Fold this sequence. Notes:
The complex is a heterodimer. Chain A is mainly α. Chain A is built from 14 helices and no strands. The longest helix of chain A is centred in the C-terminal third of the chain and has 27 residues, at 206-232. Chain B is mainly alpha-helical. Chain B has one domain (2-216). Helix content of chain B is 75%, strand content 3%. Chain A binds chain B through residues 1-2, 4-5, 64, 111-112, 114-119, 121-123, 125-127, 129-130, 133-134, 136-137, 144, 242-243, 246, 249-250, 253, 257, 282-283, 285-286, 288-290, 292-293, 295-297, 300, and chain B through 35, 86-87, 90-93, 95-97, 99-104, 106-107, 110-111, 217, 221, 224-225, 228, 257-260, 262-263, 266-267, 269-270, 273-274, 277, 285, 287.
Amino acid sequence: MIEKQISTRGRKLPKPAVYGGIVIILALLPLFIKSNYWLHVLILTLIYIIVTASFRLIAISGQFSLAHAAFMGIGAYTSAVLSRWFGWPVWLTIPLGALMAMVIGAFVGYPFARLRAVYYALVSLFFGIGVLQIINALGIWTGSYQGLTGIPPIFGASKIPYYYFFLGLTSLCLLVMYRFEFCRIGTTLKAIAQSYLVAGSVGVNEIRYRVLALAAGCFFAGLAGACYAQYNLVLSNLSFNFMATLWIVMYAIIGGLNSFAGPIIGAAVLIIIPEFARDLKMYTPYVAAALLLIVVYVIPQGLAGLPEVIRSWYIRRKAKRVSHAS
Amino acid sequence: MELAVATLVNALALSSIYIVVALGFVLVFGILNILNIAHGAIYMISGYIGWQLVMGFGLNQWLGLLLTVLVVGALGIFLEKFCFRPQAGDFNRTLIVCVAIVMILQTTIVVTVGYKVQSLPAFASGILRAGPLSVSAERLVTFLISTALLAVMVWLINRTKLGQQIQAIAQNREGAGLQGININRISGLTCAMGCGLAAVAGCLMGAYLNLGAFMGDYILVKALMIVILSGIGSIGGIFFAGLIIGGLDATLPVFLSGAISQAIAVGIIVIVMVFRPRGFFGREMEM
């Protein structure tokens, strides 16, 4: 189970200089990348980094939610419908979309918190399917199967302001999620994931913390979804179905569920690398499947654990050589 | 009257396919203790294997069905030995492997066959008439094959030594091992049986409706619904739950739009899960 894999071990503080450097490099990228298509890919990567990191935020509490894309969809459709049909300003509808996802997440979190492990995964899967069918059933309001068009944009036609907007948003969200995970709440969540009985016996209100984790995760998923809607301007429910959830889960697991950097690395690798071979896009799932199998059989820590694996392999080889020499 | 009979026959044929798939799923779930997300993809690929054997190699369709079951059963043994057993029951890792299998199978179909809709030739053609009522022979054959398969499974589980061993493992894995039951062998056989059931359902569905690379997702959801409604460890429960789900599926779209009827079915399942996670007929899984 997920509980065993996530440790409560405290981590070294990040080197702010390194992270600042990465953000600065990313901020300078539009100077070199002139192609709109690549900017689009980078923006999508940034959006999915938020979504995947928020998936992990829920997963550290031991809840394997298979409805994450659906929560993203709730945020996206709330924001899109409010701005498209009611003409509300975009800057108001995006937070409302995020809040809507959070409220629904908290609302279903209470009954769902009775369930654990496989049962939780299943009930969230069905909840996701149900949300999608309700979106389909709303007809003209959500565009049903044809998709919703004519959503008002945040900025003009150029991609560059969007890029900076999403870079800022992603950095901010990651910072908040990082603080959330490595404060008392995050530690409590990991304790619940490891053993809810022990956590309960020292006075942790298990259900409240699990709902809190779900609500927080859904807030970020809804925020990313709402921004995605106002950026993409066309919504199709295919972006939020079960396959979409599976992709999010795959980003998180290939990157490594154990570390905060995992989902970021996983989303970036799996979204950007296939774009280099755009003609072979049909074969992308093969790459993902191969990566998944490698992660399961070779590096259980995910891509984020790759340096660790290489280092330990190197040390072992060195030790062997030393013992041979003596 | 005409509509009522047609709906009833549709419901029976559809639920019988659902039941066969759910039975295979619950066998793997109960014995190997894993949530086999790849079950739908296996069902899908067996439809295509049958299609290739019958349409590509020109085999008799019944022979094609039999060969498909054997091939997919062998695939099941392979999956159990090299994909499920090494994970030692770890939920996360099994889930990842299953997702990888789904990706590989679906992409293989998309790359080789493409999105063009294919279908198997009907196992029985013609329309049976009884007075004013007429019933498509194919739907009847689908229903009969599934029912026969179900009866065979009930006999196998309850009356044979293999079935007793399967039940013992489902009840207590370590205890069964201590009694001298070869757990690995039984697990492999169970996985092969589960995949074989999926193969029969895939071929039947290929003839009943048509084949598509993503048809497995839909049937997987149906199988999960049936398993949740019935609980694990009761074949009779699977049968009744399958009839309920198939009946809902065949009758609700007559009155309501497709999306709303799906949403209602899913809503029922979510409520059942929250208030009675062990289902109505079986026992709860301990994970």
